[in-house]
Design a protein that fits this description.
The complex is a heterodimer. By secondary structure, chain A is mostly beta strands. In chain A, the strands form 2 sheets. In chain A, strands 1, 3, 4, 6, 11, 12, 13 and 15 form an 8-stranded antiparallel sheet that branches. A 7-stranded antiparallel sheet of chain A has the order 2-5-14-7-8-9-10, with no helix packed on it. The two termini of chain A are 28 Å apart. By secondary structure, chain B is an all-beta fold. In chain B, 2% of the residues lie in helices and 47% in strands. Chain B is globular and about 50 Å long. Chain B starts with 5 loop residues before the first helix and ends with a strand. The chains are: A mainly beta, B mainly beta. At the A-B interface, helix 1 and strand 1 of A face helix 1, strand 6, strand 11 and strand 15 of B.
């Protein structure tokens, strides 16, 4: 008997699965599951014609450029019982972010930040009710591909990079329902750029 | 390093996989693979801004209105060897809210080869049922499980001589009459009878066996 993917991900007989999504970031275009928003200046989204290069989000050079993709404030993910895992890299010289947020107000956030103008290390950022904790990991930022994940619990957000480099935030945790987000911004001359080739979010 | 694929986990070595689709039913909008047809009125598919909220499919709010979401008659699933599995919230009521596999869409909701699980108000307004049709005749068989306002895991398994409806892993109905006779596509249907049809979906997977 052929199995279902559901049976692989959720053992039959256990409580029915909660919300989950997987995006492989390939194909002709970014699907309509995502909404692209240009925050300011020029922001482009393009599928890459290159092996293992996935989707590219770019904020152009020249300062004050930026944007993001998210679920258009359809927030199906829990702030205290969910997970986010993505394979991505920063290419530009400015900031790249990946994780969850409530919306672009960033009042409630849990994401990884790779921002060479402000950080020396990959930094786990959480924001609850507009108050932020930015906690550096032990891994220096670079422009290589990494698996960046986080588990959002009731008393902490635990982040991992490539299955190690555990970083735990216990303060200023998000307090509201969340949606996935990938974001780039630059407010100086260097461009900001992020590439993504896998993403998964799920409630626990 | 050997990287196991998802197919490696689904199939034994040497087995050639058949057609499959997974829809996670979340994101900014209903995935563009779906095609909506309004039989009457304008139905809506609205992603819900709520934790585990899924996507709400509704008929327009007037008696007789009905809408269908399918794969635009691209029928890649077998009527005799396939399965469709979905997580849905379909409450009791005098409406039709059904999900499953169907043949060529007939917006008059007459007989067009299908097997759907959910609520079909003319048969029962209270219990989940299995509704099927061959090319000429539709019949529905209600199970003993009362519908409620919770999400449930539905699964239809299409065999050569029957279609089985499971809900939350329990067999609810085995139907041997008026089974679909042609290739099938996923379908979500919402029809207002005396109240508006609400079908909320959180996951759908269809595959040939």
């Amino acid at each position: 008997m052929t199995n279902s993917i559901y049976e692989i991900l959720t053992k039959l007989g256990t409580p029915i699965a909660k919300t989950k999504i997987i995006d492989q970031f390939d194909g002709s275009v970014l699907t309509n599951l995502w909404t692209k928003t240009t925050s300011f200046g020029t922001f482009t989204v393009s599928m890459q014609d290159a092996i293992d290069e996935g989707l590219d989000l770019s904020s152009s050079t020249g300062g004050n450029q930026g944007g993001y993709i998210d679920f258009n404030s359809i927030r199906n993910y829990s702030n205290n019982s969910s997970g986010h895992i993505a394979v991505w890299k920063r290419l530009g010289s400015f900031s790249a972010y990946a994780g969850f947020w409530s919306n672009s107000s960033e009042a409630d956030v849990a994401y990884w930040r790779n921002a060479p103008t402000s950080d020396s290390f990959f930094t786990l950022v959480t924001t609850g009710s507009s108050v932020t904790t930015a906690n550096p990991s032990t891994l220096a930022i670079d422009t290589n591909w990494h698996v960046l994940s986080m588990i959002l619990g009731s008393s902490n957000v635990v982040g991992l990079i490539d299955g190690a480099n555990t970083t735990t935030n216990t303060s200023n945790l998000p307090t509201a329902k969340l949606q996935p987000v990938f974001k780039t911004t630059t407010n100086i001359t260097p461009a900001a750029e992020i590439r993504i080739r896998y993403f998964e979010a799920y409630n626990i | 390093m050997t990287q196991l694929s998802l197919l490696d986990q689904l199939y034994s070595s040497g087995v050639v996989p058949k057609q499959r689709v997974v829809d996670w039913m979340n994101g900014s909008a209903l995935n563009q693979r779906w095609n909506k047809t309004d039989g009457s009125g304008v139905g809506t598919a609205t992603p819900q801004d709520a934790i585990d909220g899924g996507i709400l499919f509704q008929s327009a709010g007037v008696t007789g209105n009905r809408s269908y979401w399918n794969f635009n008659n691209k029928r890649q699933y077998s009527n005799t060897s396939s399965s469709v599995l979905f997580i849905a919230k379909i409450n009791s009521g005098d409406y039709e809210g059904e999900v499953g596999l169907s043949g060529v869409l007939d917006t008059q909701a007459t007989n067009h080869d299908y097997a759907l699980g959910g609520i079909e108000g003319s048969t029962s307004t209270t219990n989940y049922m299995l509704d099927s049709a061959d090319a000429t005749t539709e019949t529905a068989t209600a199970g003993t499980l009362a519908a409620d306002a919770n999400f449930h895991l539905f699964q239809l398994i299409f065999g050569a001589s029957n279609v089985k409806l499971y809900i939350d892993n329990s067999l609810i109905v085995t139907k041997t009459t008026n089974l679909p006779t042609i290739g099938l596509q996923p379908e979500i249907m919402a029809r207002f009878r005396n109240i508006q049809a609400n079908v909320t979906m959180r996951y759908l997977e269809a595959y040939n066996i």
